[in-house]
From TrEMBL:
<feature type="compositionally biased region" description="Basic and acidic residues">
    <location>
        <begin position="36"/>
        <end position="47"/>
    </location>
</feature>
<protein>
    <recommendedName>
        <fullName>DUF4760 domain-containing protein</fullName>
    </recommendedName>
</protein>
<feature type="compositionally biased region" description="Acidic residues">
    <location>
        <begin position="21"/>
        <end position="35"/>
    </location>
</feature>
<feature type="region of interest" description="Disordered">
    <location>
        <begin position="1"/>
        <end position="53"/>
    </location>
</feature>
Length: 236
């Protein structure tokens, strides 16, 4: 049996071998791309869209109207707060008037009025032609002397008169404190008590002086302020 002979391979020429090597090296070694080749520059952030035309003007108007609405609501709230406080002050002032009636302070005042009228009939009165400041001081001194005589008397009636003066002085002092603290309405109380306060203090400011000279340095000071306040406000 004859062995099969293998056909010898054809020899590759030197030129063909060089061409193959060149082709292989070109496929494997490609030139490097530049460092930044293929990279996109960073994108700028989008600009805010400007609202123009009718819609932009409408939005601005709505913002203004909303601001006006907030301010208006605040103003209304302030007025309601003030009105509510004023109503409370009026009610508290009317409560003072009720105390004047229910605590029988008006009865004390009436008894003091009768006492003053009796004293005026037996006292030497200052001339009405005197300047107002001098006339006021003369009546104050007159009341001072009356109270000195009452204390010297020491009787039950005299003690009752002094108690009436103390109680009314305290009541009018509390009234002034209430007005000064803006807890009471001065106009309301002036309308009710202008005559009572000024007349009472015309004669019994002298008693306050007597108490200050004794042991009560600030006795009746708020009533001084109340009389000045009511005189400045005027007779209603």
């Amino acid at each position: 049996m004859t062995a099969r002979r293998t056909k010898p391979k054809e020899r590759v020429s030197d030129e063909m071998a060089y061409e193959v090597l060149v082709e292989d090296s070109g496929a494997e070694e490609s030139p490097e791309a530049p460092e930044f080749e293929g990279k996109r520059p960073p994108r700028r952030p989008p600009e805010p869209e400007e609202t123009g035309g009718f819609l932009g003007g409408f939005e601005q108007i709505m913002r203004i109207l909303a601001s006006i609405g907030v301010a208006g609501a605040a103003i209304v709230g302030v007025f309601e707060y003030i009105s509510s406080n004023e109503d409370v002050r009026r009610e508290r002032s009317l409560a003072v008037v009720r105390d004047w009636q229910e605590d029988k302070l008006i009865d004390r005042y009436t008894q003091l009025q009768s006492y003053v009228e009796n004293q005026l009939q037996t006292s030497t009165l200052p001339p009405a032609s005197l300047p107002p400041e001098v006339l006021a001081r003369a009546y104050r001194n007159l009341g001072y002397n009356w109270m000195v005589d009452l204390r010297a008397d020491g009787g039950a009636d005299a003690q009752a008169m002094e108690t009436h003066v103390d109680r009314l002085t305290l009541f009018f002092a509390q009234m002034e404190i209430c007005i000064a603290a803006e807890l009471c309405n001065g106009d309301v109380l002036n309308a009710y008590f202008h005559s009572e306060v000024t007349t009472f203090w015309q004669y019994f400011e002298g008693y306050a002086q007597l108490r200050r000279e004794a042991n009560y340095a600030d006795y009746g000071r708020p009533v001084d302020a109340l009389v000045g306040r009511f005189q400045q406000m005027g007779q209603p």
